[in-house]
Records
---
Amino acid sequence: MTETHRTLPPEALDAWAAELRARFDLGAEDIPIALILDLARDVANGVARPAAPLSAFVAGLVAGRAGGSPDDVRATVAAVVELANAHGTRG
């Protein structure tokens, strides 16, 4: 039995993003890969690793409810990152 590796090299991530854009009729600006990866990193480091995908989902949900524009996504991601950065400082 061979082990399946789930870590994607950058070009595979780009290919996956292209598949998502094609399937859901999205533009390149609709999937800000670096922004979402930074969000995941900051939440994983500031809260916990399992909180990263949950936070990415919540950011997408909130941004979509706000209108779903690239500006809505950036503002929501910034708010989630700010919350994650403050998470360990509360006492």
---
Amino acid sequence: MDSKALIQAYMRAKKFSQYQQVAAELGFTKSHISSLTTGKVQLTDTTAKKIAEDIGLDVQEVLLSLAAVRATDPELKKAWYNILSNYTKGAGTAVALVAAVFLAPSHGHDLTAHNVISGYVED
């Protein structure tokens, strides 16, 4: 799960229809929300933890997902996804994450948890 997916989960849980509502609730500017939802920046661990707790998501899984998303080195990214997979062992999303990381070509693809879970990996 990347920041955009977490923000969208927050919106669904809070029944918000606009990013402006999220910005106001979390004390962000509209510009910062835009940067989060376009993937230019990721949430801090502190904010991700707060959001996860607020909407009932597994905080550790969210933090592991964000660490995987943030990793820029392919080997580190793979390691984070392996850790996430082990943490969520038995869950269908873990299988999808591992398969996408190991089977997707490593050139040019943006393997975020959101893209992997949703099946969207741009060519």
---
Amino acid sequence: MTEQHKPAETPEELNQTTDSHADTVELSSEQTIISKLEEELAKTQSQLAEQHDLMLRIKADADNARRRAAQDVEKAHKFALEKFASDLLPVLDNLERALNFINREDEAFKGVIEGIELTMKSFLDTVEKYGVIQLDPAGQPFNPEQHQAMSMQPTADLPPNTVTFVMQKGYELNGRLLRPAMVGVSKAP
């Protein structure tokens, strides 16, 4: 019964109703597209952020590898002579022993002593040009990073943990210890 009492819609009203439904359908279709595009944009932005982070990590790794390689090359240049210098240390020790055991009072040995001293000085000057430095710690505080204690002697003349005598001198190559100095160390009486 209600249908009979309902007035017939005019064609103009029908067009408006259809247009409003069409607009609604188009809007919902546009909203769906916008929603999909926003999801794709968010996904793309997330991928971009991940790739940017990955690129930064790769760049940092490359920088670190470059820095390590440069450090390795620098160390190779600085310490290439390490084995060679270590092999020369007994020669220096023998020259020092010769000077210590020779009779300095005998006039016949004056020329020999002078020759050994000049040879030793020349030898030390030459190895110093390449970064080898002699460690003679007599009278200095004991340093376990550079010295090897061979004996401890009670003494009141020196403060405890002071090097009292050097049995064998130590050597460094560009700051790296080649051989520790073998020393005697004082202790409290």
